Amino acid sequence: MSTDGSGGAELQDALPSRVAVIGGGRMGAGIAHAFLMAGAEVAVVERDASAASEARDRILSAVEGSVLRGATPPDPARLLVTVTWEALSGAGLAIEAVPEVLDFKREALRRAEDLLPVDAVLATNTSSLSIDALAAGLERPGAFLGLHFFNPVPASALVEIVLGTATATTAAESAERWIRALGKTTVTVRDSPGFASSRLGVLLGLEAIRMVEDGVATPDDIDTAMELGYKHPVGPLRLTDMVGLDVRLDIAEYLARELGPRFEPPELLRQMVAEGMLGRKTGQGFFFWGADGSSIPTAGERPR
User: Whose CA, among 9, 36, 80, 294, lies 20 to 30 Å from 253?
Assistant: First the structure.
């Protein structure tokens, strides 16, 4: 089901008073920023003091950008970035946003469930891992679902709600109401490898990489063809750089195991990841990336 998030005081009132985010990387910080700007109290839990400091800087930088664009500044007292898991206590919603590794996520989810109120909703921000597999070991799987936010979170209008076999209707309805309060639109899908968005998006990205590998066209020309010819806001190769080539490789390998060889990663993708060319986060992937987030073509040559 899709809903058009239109904001407004009545939607802000629909937010849980406290939202916890586990992991303050690019995605976790973006999720925290979205809820903070909507008026919620937000607690971000990180693994150590250094990671917590970096997470806080990411969130405050995003807040500053929103304020410069005309948004109302949030109350800074509503943001807590900490290494203390007890910060999850009292949260009505907790969102796990740690790296896309099944065991990491399971550990974080089990630890979070132990600290959350019994009526809280627990979510994962996974883009492809099975909700049912992640729910294994949880005592309250009915309160668990997927909330797949898109990168960059502040600019993205979509959140994919992924329902596990055990997900309760009340949890799904609460999640949809909260996402609407962020001014975003939801699509709801059942648990299946890659869900809807990653399954289609990754397949397109892999074929674009194969075209570069085969010398069909440059990354810039391939992206331009999709942006102008098919009205994609971002081409598949620039998007791969933004997501991270290592992340895309992990997802492709998972989907290849689950859905078959059509998701088998191209050798070029494996090579680039092995060489540390991971996209925007390392400064080079299929494009060169500046510190300000801008990208330029790689002089018409595919990366080597």
Answer: 294
